[in-house]
# Entry
Amino acid sequence: MKTVARMPPLDDEILLNAYLDGELDDAAASALENRLHAEPALKLIYDRLEALRRVIAANIAKDRASENLRAKIAAIAEPKAQTSRSRPARLYDFRQLAASVLVAAVLASSATTYISRYDRLSDTTALIAAHQHALLALSPVEVVSEDRHTVKPWFDNHLALSPRVIDLSSAGFTLVGGRADVIAGKALPVMVYRIRGHIIGLVATPKPGSADDSRDVVRDHRDGYQVLTWPGRDFVYSAISDVAESDLMNFVARWRSEAKTN
# Structure
């Protein structure tokens, strides 16, 4: 069994994020840069984090109220010329209050939409970005083995997580091994399969108490990659690949079927 470089410790992950945010002083930044030159494993994680930030920043839309809505808000807030001294001064205060309420409602709605879009985007973007960078590495796996009884204990030893590892070689999906990817700040187990030269990454996100309830698979795609996500026992699984969608759907169907009987 051949094992390549392991993931850096959590402290290094925090250090890398602080470096990317420009939060390190000159001495700490210089020390980290020296380590990046000397430690390929650390440099790989840095490259993944940097690429993930670029992809998210490039794809998140900036929500903005329409010009028509902005004009209406401005009109409400605009103080009206009083036609007589007898008009109650409280009218202007009411208009200001109405404008404030409307602005707050618009901002709340926009923020909710933005957060919702970000959640959906970041899930798919982060999964694909991690998958792409694993493909660019010297090896897409950290533990190389076709034996699920080798891959599963590796996850348990390195991440204290033990997702299902299914042997699908009889269906044409060969288990290559496993790795750990940092996605949304969490180190997650990734099972790696191969079919006709294509790599399928299967990410297992912990969700204690969940079960495979046979709901439809959630589909998403971006930049030529398909992402299929479904609930499993104590984990939510996401399969990522540039293989044909029919092949990936077949992989998911076979995996779920085998998981119920193993």
User: Anything to note?
Assistant: The radius of gyration is 25 Å. The chain is about 50% helix and 20% strand. Residues 1-8, 80-94, 106-122 have pLDDT under 50 and may be disordered.
